[in-house]
Design brief:
Elements lengths: L1 E7 L12 E5 L9 H11 L8 E5 L12 H4 L6 E6 L3 E3 H21 L1 H5 L7 H23 L7 E3 L2 H21 L19 H28 L21 H17 L2 H29 L16
Parallel strand pairs: 1-4
Antiparallel strand pairs: 1-2, 3-4, 5-6
Helix pairs in contact: 3-5, 3-6, 5-7, 6-9, 7-8, 8-9
């Protein structure tokens, strides 16, 4: 049996007023008991203090201990002490993704099919508006399906308040702003901004559609490669190889940005370019972090010539 003292990190924990406590894990030693076992014992003492809200760390260390690590690997000794912090109400990552992508799926049909309510009159949609509507709906429907059937998440939950921040740029920029722009009278079939321009050229639009389909399928391929690296229910990580990964660490981000770049070019919309810039910044930051983590974890085994997100550039 192993025993561990659990103390509050900083101020007292409202859902665990009795801290510090000593928990015992019967039948296990530090070689077999895990951080998750300690969290489960805390829940037994304080039923409202759910596992997802708990952040365990070593004393004088702010780094969270990983649930599936043994106490020995986490640096916890028999009779040692860990601290616990309340992370607040949590929500599942999968749920957050579903909420994020649901926004544009609801917003775009409202602007597309109800122009009298939005713009005060009917709008005869141009070819480019029709293409953008179909492409946007298919993109986010694909993302919803991937969230349910493809993605595997190393972290189970995030703070509930993050759902608003994470959903904001999808709901506002690729949702309301883009829809308001490309389904407006300025993009109608009779608008001088459309008639006689490349935005109404079937050959140009079909070429854009072809590149967009290539980007979407390539993005899906990258997601499948990442999925197959991690067995279900594990945090296992490996070095991704194959299509796209020979050039960059995060081809899924590159191909998604390529798809949005196509929409920006074919429409010339300020909203499309704004969303592309925001998404490009966010995903580049994510990619740099992932690239560094790959190099830190795998060292010399990680391909040296592989860029971060943009082939041959960054």
């Amino acid at each position: 049996m192993v025993t561990v003292t659990v103390a509050p990190a900083g101020r007292s924990v409202s859902l665990a007023k009795g801290l510090p406590i000593t928990v015992s894990i019967p039948g296990k030693g530090v070689e077999t008991a895990t951080v998750a076992d300690v969290k489960a014992e805390i829940v037994k003492k304080f039923p409202r203090f759910e596992v997802s809200r708990q952040k365990l760390a070593l004393k004088e260390d702010k780094r969270a201990l990983v649930d599936d690590k043994t106490l020995r690997d986490a640096g916890v000794v028999d009779g040692g002490e860990v601290t616990v912090k309340d992370l607040g109400p949590q929500i599942g990552w999968r749920t957050v993704f579903l909420i994020e992508y649901a926004g544009p799926l609801v917003i775009h049909p409202i602007f597309y099919y109800l122009p009298k309510i939005i713009y005060g009159g009917s709008v005869q949609h141009s070819r480019v508006s029709q293409y953008v509507f179909a492409m946007t709906m298919l993109h986010f429907f694909k993302r919803e399906l991937e969230t349910v059937f493809v993605h595997r998440f190393s972290n189970g939950t995030m703070p509930f308040s993050n759902v608003f921040k994470n959903s904001g740029h999808y709901w506002v920029f690729s949702g309301a702003a883009l829809a308001y722009s490309v389904y407006s009278p300025a993009y109608s079939s009779s608008s001088p901004f459309i008639r006689g321009t490349y935005r109404d050229d079937p050959t140009f639009l079909m070429a854009c559609l072809g590149i967009w389909i290539f980007a979407e399928l390539s993005n899906f391929s990258a997601h499948m490669t990442l999925r197959n690296l991690r067995p279900a229910g594990t945090r296992k990580r490996g070095i991704p190889h194959g299509y796209g990964f020979s050039l960059v660490s995060c081809p899924n981000y590159f191909f998604e940005l390529l798809g949005w770049a196509v929409i920006a070019v074919m429409t010339g919309s300020y909203a499309a370019y704004t969303f592309l810039a925001i998404a490009g910044y966010i995903q580049t930051v994510w990619a740099i972090k992932k690239h560094r983590n790959y190099k830190k974890e795998f060292g010399n085994q990680y391909p040296k010539g592989r860029k971060v997100i943009f082939p041959f550039i960054l």
